[in-house]
Design brief:
By secondary structure, the chain is α/β, with parallel strands linked by helices. The chain is built from seven helices and 13 strands.
């Protein structure tokens, strides 16, 4: 079965992308490359990276790309989200950041960005920038187990790969159940729902990326050009 590489948070950094591609080509035996958004950002010109993603070199993996928070803000500001604007970016970083983002991406790339999907479903896995709720949802090791369960059950998957927080982590919801009581005109009813073992995985950002083997369920948290890091795991 194919092994996956999952990256995000490049924000126009072509050198980081080249380092990851070099890593994958020589050492990782990967078949599919998923890019979970935030390939653009206001800190640098993003045109070279965008061109590379659309036209990979011979021997490079063809990236399967989603849009992230930065792409969503740019698409909104450029009129690709109906009446929305980049208000979240304005509120958090000011008008100068909006202007810098507009300058960082040539309008010729907007058509490609507008065609990016919100998420992928592969096997029993959801691959998203944020979560099933919204692209800006930042899940992490401190997130509530009930919140994580909600995000998983919205898409009826057992594993959710997320990138918004920029962290590398693996949290397992190890089973159990949810009990509830409902009172209505017919009286009080008791309900119990079993919860299967499920997992939320943060893939990292920039040169920090993740390899996943669906056949063995093995995760490796990596940094381009270095050895595998020990997985950070949590239980809920």
């Amino acid at each position: 079965m194919a092994r996956w590489a999952l990256i995000s948070g490049l924000r126009g950094d072509l050198e980081a992308y080249e380092a990851i591609q070099e890593d994958l080509r020589h050492t990782r035996r990967v078949d599919t490359l998923f890019v979970l958004g935030d390939v653009i950002g206001p800190a640098r010109n993003c045109d070279a990276l965008l061109s590379r993603l659309q036209q990979p070199r011979r021997g490079e993996l063809q990236p399967q790309c989603l849009y992230g928070w930065w792409e969503d803000q740019l698409l909104a500001e450029r009129g690709y989200r109906g009446g929305r604007r980049a208000d979240a970016l304005r509120l958090s970083q000011g008008e100068a950041a909006v202007d810098a983002l507009l300058q960082a991406v040539d309008p010729g790339h907007m058509g490609w960005l507008a065609e990016l999907q919100f998420g992928f479903i592969e096997l029993d896995c959801a691959l998203l920038h944020g979560s099933s709720a919204t692209v800006e949802d930042s899940l992490g090791p401190d997130s509530s187990p009930l919140l994580l369960l909600d995000r998983l059950t919205r898409m009826e998957v057992n594993r959710l790969f997320t990138a918004r927080s920029g962290q590398q982590f693996s949290i397992e919801l190890t089973g159990g159940g949810i009990e509830s009581q409902v009172r209505d005109l017919e009286g009080q009813r008791h309900q119990q729902q079993s919860v299967p073992k499920r997992q939320v995985i943060g893939i990292g950002a920039g040169v920090h990326y993740t390899i996943y083997d669906p056949g063995s369920d093995r995760l490796d948290f990596l940094t381009a050009g270095s050895r595998p890091q020990q997985r950070a795991r949590g239980f809920a």
